[in-house]
Hints:
Blueprint: H1 2-26, H2 38-56
Helix pairs in contact: 1-2
Amino acid sequence: MRKKTDKRARLVEKIIRQAWSSLESHLPYTYKKSTEKEQFHKNCVKEYIDIIKNASELY
Length: 59
């Protein structure tokens, strides 16, 4: 049973790390100029935060 728990924890970690990386790429553009509007980046950040929150509940 421990192997299944470890595999699940590693998968949750991977999801959180991927979402965090994507969040970081959008975060500066919530206040800096980019080809997209600031609101687009703010929405992306909110979505990634939600993904991280939901993934953390899988622990």
